[in-house]
Structure formats: structure tokens, C-alpha cells
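thread from #wetlab-drylab

HS: before we spend reagent money on co-crystallization trials with 1,3-dihydroxyacetonephosphate, can we at least see a predicted complex? here's what I'd submit
DV: go for it
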Amino acid sequence: MDHIRKTVIGGNWKMNLLPSEVSAYAEELKKYITDSENTVVFFAPPFVMLPIAVQSFKDTGIFVAAQNVSEHENGAFTGEVSASQLRDLGITHVIAGHSERRSIYGEADSAVNAKVLKILEHSMQPVLCVGESEEIRDSGKTEELIASQLKAALSGVSEDDITRVIIAYEPIWAIGTGRTATAVQAEEVCCFIRGVLAELYCEKANAVSIIYGGSMNADNASELLGAPNIDGGLIGGASLVPESFAKIINTANTSN
Ligand code: 13P
């Protein structure tokens, strides 16, 4: 991998596990990770677990991320959580535009864009998710969709800020299905993403970490992470078990 880019491994717990399970998870994970020097590691538990997660991972070099954030600064938005609240808690990364948010909660590109800008404004790093459905892939429109998702979500992101954005390519057909994209398929789209970034940000595109998500696990991580434009992974199911998440982190450490 090009060393101007960081390898990033993120765990997305989605709506799983309990607050009372976080500290035991942290202890287990710390036990299994051999060396995370070359890799940025974060995990994103549900909002209610963020305080205990920040406490449990203090001084470990593992970052705690949020799965979502409000696009608004503050005010009368019942049920929402603001970027300043996350930042105040010690959150460093925030997932934006996950396909589950887009498809189940109708999050539009414009909202994803507002969230990305809000996360940057509050000195955190957005993990911007893009990805096509099976239908889009079958109709040959993957690149068109990815380009439009990227351009919309990055609107107003400056050249100075783009290297703080992590892009996660998550094909919807590979999420939670056990049907991982092959390294060739994933590399093809990640390379395309880098091309779109180059169009928008010239050589800065080479410094942006682009990661893959969709049924990544301890067995397939090595092949995926070996591809030149795949700089890490966003892991759902396999991040729930500390031993398997740690195996992916350890694989990343040896592949960069
Ligand atoms: P799975 O690893 O469970 O397929 O989930 C991927 C994902 O959506 C991570 O954000």
C-alpha cells in the first residue's frame, strides 16, 4: 500500500450488544491485538454505549466512533445527537450515509452532505459510505451511482479537509449477506472512487483512505486488504466478536 495513506479498520456494531458488555469486549480486544501501530482502528457502538466505550478504550490507541449524527448544530430535534455532543465526549470518527440509514430512514444525499460538513466542522473524521444495490450493479450503473453519491456528499468539502475524510465502499448486496465482493470487484470500484476524488481534488486523492465493507471477515480480509486501492475495512458482523475483529486488525497490520 502507498504509505501516504493510513490503513483504517473500523467496526460497526449497528444495533447490537449491550452497554454492560462493552468493557468486557474492550478487555478481550486488547488481549488479542498484537500490534496496531500501522493501522487506525475504531469501533462504532450504538449512541448509548459511547461514554463507556470512550472510558474502556482510553489510552489504548483505539478510537471510538459514532454511527450517525444530526446535520443540525443544536436545538429542538428530539431523538437526535449533535456533532458537538459527540466531540465533547471524545468521539473522533462518525459514520455518515451508511446504506441502512439511506434505505431504511430515507437519508438523502443532501443530508449526508450536511452531516459530513458538520463532522468536519467539529474536528472529527467522517467515514462516508457509498455503495450500489444489486439491481444497480446488474444494470451496469454502479460507477454512475458511486460518482453521484460521492460528488453530492463531498460538496463544499475543501482540499484541506478531504484527507480527513475516510471513504467506505460498501456494496449493499454484500452487507450482512456473507456474499463478499471479490478483491477484484472491490478494487475496481475503490480505484474508480480514487479517480473521482482525483477529478475533484487532484493529487490529494492519493492521500485519502478508501476502505471496503460487506461481509469482511478474518478469512477474506487478507486478500481484500492486499488490493492496491483498498486501504482498510468497515466490518459489521465480524466486529461483534473481539477475537475475529482482532484477527482482521492483525491482518491489516501485516499487510501495510
Ligand atoms: P457486514 O460486515 O455485517 O456485512 O456489515 C458491513 C457493514 O455494513 C459495515 O458498516
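DV: The mean pLDDT is 95.
HS: ok that's useful, forwarding to the group
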